[in-house]
Specification:
Order of helices and strands: EEHHHHHHH
Number of helices: 7
Mean pLDDT: 83
Strand order of the largest sheet: 1-2
Structural class: mainly alpha
Strand content: 5-15%
Largest sheet: 2 strands, antiparallel
């Protein structure tokens, strides 16, 4: 008795039935999924500038109460929580503001944002992954920087 190998179309590729021949990967009628868009580890220049400016101002203030109040006002996180996060993560003040801003904007937990940041590679890419405009993050950093330099912590 002779058995003929049948080829069935299943999903996006072909499946060979009754043989050890691998599915077709070339030829007419083969549909391949579109390649994933390239992920960039490049930071948005405005975000980099805002982060550097805020960290410089925070360093000038000695990361005192006014620094934590400026972050707290922008990220809506108590200053005591920010100090605990700083101690456990060793993140600089600007990074804490970014992480907490993404936490509040996305609804994810702080720890999850840290894990997502590791996978994304950059704050800009993470913001895009979470569908948050990186310009919003830069604006928060700039507002915190301005309030720190003015000596005020009013939320913008």
């Amino acid at each position: 008795m002779i058995f003929a190998a049948a080829t069935l179309v299943h999903g996006q590729g072909n499946v060979s039935v009754g043989t050890n021949i691998p599915p077709m990967t070339r030829g007419p009628g083969i549909v391949r999924p579109a390649p994933a868009p390239a992920r960039s580890n490049t930071e948005d220049p405005a975000l980099v500038s805002a982060l550097a400016n805020f960290n410089a101002a925070a360093k000038t203030k000695g990361e005192g109460a006014s620094t934590w109040e400026a972050i707290s006002a922008q990220a809506s996180v108590p200053a005591a929580t920010l100090r605990q996060q700083r101690a456990s993560t060793k993140m600089n003040p600007g990074q804490l503001l970014l992480a907490n801003s993404l936490t509040s904007s996305s609804g994810n937990a702080f720890a999850k944002i840290l894990g997502l940041k590791t996978n994304a590679g950059s704050w800009t890419q993470l913001a895009k992954d979470l569908r948050i405009d990186p310009a919003r993050l830069a604006a928060r950093l700039n507002a915190a920087d301005a309030s720190l330099k003015r000596g005020k912590t009013k939320k913008s």
